[in-house]
């Protein structure tokens, strides 16, 4: 149930003002107002709001939490799920350095896809494309968790993406991006002690940093020439079964 009414008033300077107010009842039976500058905007919003109320997914702007509050809820959820400390640190950096400064004060209920597209363009103007893609993924995860909690009706970032720019992607060059076979041989000869074993393992196994940190002597079979990845470790020395 909803109605639209016109509101008129005079300012202290004598200027005549008007606005259009949508009065409606949400799915919890609470009456709420929403004000617009034009009747057209009010009518369009009314149709969408009534549909959300019928679906039981409407969130009034006045009752909505901010993106910054939703971000803290998301980070706590990620931590409870047992994600690696390094991963959590990366997510928090995305929130503190990129998401909150641009969107933190916005209410979830009024966040729109066009606004997220502006956020996307701002990221691409300020940071590298790979980092911008990671931050956008974090925002999508943040909104997905908010949707799961019932704090927002939909994930308005789902349709926003950052593709790979193939025009600027170049092939890796020897002696610039990667070592030549001769340089690798010289590096192995120069290495001594535990660093020699580590470098040889890195060069010929292709293990990730977390897999190298978690490697133990019992995972190495020198007779068979085999190496088994059974656990991983992050930079904080937290270990996980691989």
The Cα radius of gyration reads 27 Å
Order of helices and strands: EEEHHHHHHHHEEEE
* Structure summary, number of beta strands: 7
Low-confidence segments: none
CATH class of the largest domain: Mainly Alpha
Structural domain tally: 3
CATH topology of the largest domain: DNA polymerase, domain 1
List the total number of helices.
8
Portion in helices: 40-55%
Q: Summarize model confidence as the mean pLDDT.
A: 90
Oligomerization: single chain
Span of the ends, CA to CA: 55 Å
Instruction: Trace the largest sheet across and list its strands.
Output: 1-2-3
Q: Biggest β-sheet: count, sense, barrel?
A: 3 strands, antiparallel
CATH architecture of the largest domain: Orthogonal Bundle
Find the structural class using helix and strand composition.
Answer: alpha+beta
Assess the beta-strand content as a share of residues.
5-15%
* Outline: elongated
Could you please describe the fold and organization of this structure?
Helix content is 46%, strand content 14%. The protein is α+β, with helices and mostly antiparallel strands and 242 residues long. The chain has 3 domains: 2-58, no CATH class; 67-149, DNA polymerase, domain 1 (Orthogonal Bundle), CATH 1.10.150; 181-241, no CATH class. The strands form 3 sheets. The protein has a 3-stranded antiparallel sheet, with helices on one face. Strands 4-5 form a two-stranded antiparallel ribbon. A hairpin with a 5-residue loop joins strand 6 (231-233) and strand 7. The longest helix is centred in the middle third of the chain and has 21 residues, at 129-149. The chain is elongated. The relative contact order is 0.08.
């Amino acid at each position: 149930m909803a109605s639209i009414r016109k509101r008129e008033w005079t300012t202290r300077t004598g200027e005549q003002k008007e606005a259009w107010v949508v009065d409606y009842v949400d799915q919890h039976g609470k009456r709420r107002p929403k004000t617009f500058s034009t009747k057209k905007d009010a009518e369009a919003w009314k149709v969408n709001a009534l549909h959300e109320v019928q679906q039981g997914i409407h969130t009034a702007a006045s009752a909505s939490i901010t993106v910054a509050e939703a971000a803290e809820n998301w980070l706590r959820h990620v931590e409870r799920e047992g994600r690696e400390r390094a991963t959590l640190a990366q997510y928090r950096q995305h929130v503190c350095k990129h998401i909150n400064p641009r969107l933190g004060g916005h209410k979830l209920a009024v966040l729109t896809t066009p606004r997220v597209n502006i956020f996307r363009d701002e990221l691409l103007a300020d940071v590298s494309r790979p980092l911008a893609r990671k931050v956008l993924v974090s925002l999508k995860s943040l909104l997905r968790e908010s949707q799961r909690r019932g704090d927002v009706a939909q994930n308005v970032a789902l349709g926003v993406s950052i593709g790979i720019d193939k025009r600027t992607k170049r092939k890796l060059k020897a002696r610039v991006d990667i070592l030549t076979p001769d340089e690798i041989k010289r590096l192995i000869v120069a290495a001594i002690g535990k660093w020699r074993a580590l470098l040889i393992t890195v060069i010929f196994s292709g293990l990730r940093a977390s897999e190298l940190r978690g490697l133990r002597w019992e995972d190495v079979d020198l007779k068979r020439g085999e190496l088994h990845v059974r656990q991983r470790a992050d930079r904080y020395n937290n270990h996980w079964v691989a």
